[in-house]
């Protein structure tokens, strides 16, 4: 397989005025009314800050133009990775999560020059506020993403949110959310059935990831259901300061999972986003952080994930490793649109970008 770029990459979500210029961690979906929706964490001042909110934009012309970003989830804490899932004829779910430790002074390097501004805001947040607010969250729209419900809490979080299964149910494979300021263990990945009224039902836990006999930290999963009902999931894995992608599968709706196995070389990149093209081809886009040739890459599978053609480049940059989290949508003509975050300039803020491309 080969990729062919269509035009140049371009910025689609930014805020050039003021200090809240940083946008990151996007997801994208085709809505039931034909529009493309992109969600992300925006109006931030840095990678870590207390001001992030999950915002949404819409395109009615296949990604040529977009509306201005509007908040969907906006708590007093740092609302981060935004996901989106389309369900049935009109329902849409938007997800995000926050953690109170991201507001602590430990991370001052991420908002250098604005310490007094951040400290002033954080001083207004009480421990009780944090206890009430800290969570993985989702909101539901019953009108194709135009208006949204109250905010519900989820037991798990993942960058791109849940997926709709063929039976109409909603499955969220994610990392178990903890509000105790402790780092997760290596075995905190699980699948939950999510209901549009806010209920969440445990389905099953994912297995430990290993490199040889060494446990590997894994997180930020993304799943897809295949034609035979198999749920295939890609995991971001960390090993000796390197990133890679592991794969695991479930044949019983997320109750049990195969032992995760690595499908990329170490330092190839992560996390990933899975879609199935109208041709039947499986496509997984992922971030590649390697200083020299950082960017966005894609892999293909013609055999439902048994083997992968890895490492095709659709975006490269020399502006740093703070980038990635791509998500891909198929356009009406069969070409692809991938959104991601990156810095256009080394000293500039992160913005949401897109690249159109096709398979040949």
Could you walk me through the main structural features you see in this protein, from its secondary elements to its overall organization?
By secondary structure, the protein is mainly β. Helix content is 4%, strand content 48%. The strands form 6 sheets. Strands 10, 11, 12, 13 and 14 form a 5-stranded antiparallel beta sheet that branches. A hairpin with a 2-residue loop joins strand 17 and strand 18.
Topology:
Elements: E1 3-13, E2 22-30, E3 36-44, E4 53-59, E5 70-73, E6 83-87, E7 91-97, H1 115-122, H2 127-133, E8 136-141, E9 151-154, E10 156-157, E11 163-164, E12 170-176, E13 189-194, E14 200-205, E15 209-211, E16 214-225, E17 231-239, E18 242-250, E19 261-262, E20 272-276, E21 282-288, E22 294-301, E23 309-317, E24 324-330, E25 336-343, E26 350-359
Antiparallel strand pairs: 1-26, 2-3, 3-4, 4-5, 6-7, 7-8, 8-9, 10-12, 11-12, 12-13, 13-14, 15-16, 16-17, 17-18, 18-19, 20-21, 21-22, 22-23, 24-25, 25-26
Residues in helices, as a percent range: under 10%
Q: Pairing-aware structural class of the strands and helices?
A: mainly beta
Overall residue-averaged pLDDT value: 94
Q: What's the number of extended β-strand segments?
A: 26
Percentage of residues in DSSP E strands: over 45%
Poorly predicted regions are none
Describe the sheet with the most strands.
Answer: 5 strands, antiparallel
Cα shape? globular
> What is the alpha-carbon Rg in Å?
19 Å
What attributes does this structure have?
single chain, 360 residues, mainly beta, five-stranded antiparallel sheet, 2 helices, 26 strands, 4% helix, globular
């Amino acid at each position: 397989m080969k990729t062919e770029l269509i035009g140049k990459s371009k910025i689609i979500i930014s805020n050039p005025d003021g200090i809240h210029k940083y946008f990151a961690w996007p997801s994208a979906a085709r809505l039931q009314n034909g529009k493309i929706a992109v969600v992300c964490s925006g109006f931030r001042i840095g990678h870590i800050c207390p001001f992030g909110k999950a915002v949404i934009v819409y395109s009615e012309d296949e990604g040529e133009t977009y509306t201005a970003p509007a908040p969907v989830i906006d708590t007093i804490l740092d609302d981060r990775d935004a996901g989106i899932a389309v369900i049935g004829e009109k329902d849409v779910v938007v997800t995000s999560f926050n953690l109170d430790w991201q507001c602590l002074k430990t991370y001052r390097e991420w908002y250098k020059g604005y310490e007094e501004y951040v400290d002033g805001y954080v001083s207004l947040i009480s421990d009780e506020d944090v206890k009430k607010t800290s969570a993985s969250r989702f909101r539901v729209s019953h009108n194709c993403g135009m208006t949204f419900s109250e905010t519900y809490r989820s037991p798990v979080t993942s960058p791109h949110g849940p997926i709709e299964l063929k039976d109409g149910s909603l499955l969220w494979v994610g990392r178990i959310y903890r509000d105790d300021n402790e780092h997760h263990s290596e075995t905190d990945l699980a699948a939950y059935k999510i209901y549009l009224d806010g209920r969440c039902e445990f389905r099953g836990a994912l297995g430990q990831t290993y490199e040889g006999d060494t446990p590997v930290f894994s997180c930020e999963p993304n799943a897809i259901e295949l034609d035979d009902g198999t749920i295939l999931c890609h995991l971001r894995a960390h090993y000796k300061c390197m990133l890679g992608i592991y794969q695991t599968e479930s044949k019983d709706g997320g109750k049990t999972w195969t032992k995760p196995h690595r499908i990329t070389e170490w330092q190839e990149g992560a996390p990933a986003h899975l879609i199935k093209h109208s041709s039947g081809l499986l496509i997984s886009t992922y971030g590649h952080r390697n200083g020299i040739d950082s960017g966005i890459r894609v892999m293909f599978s013609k055999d439902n994930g048994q083997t992968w053609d890895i490492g095709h480049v659709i975006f490269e940059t020399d502006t740093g490793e703070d980038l990635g989290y791509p998500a891909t949508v198929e356009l009406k003509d069969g070409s692809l649109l991938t959104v991601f975050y990156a810095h256009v300039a080394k000293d500039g803020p992160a913005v949401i970008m897109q690249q159109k491309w096709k398979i040949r």
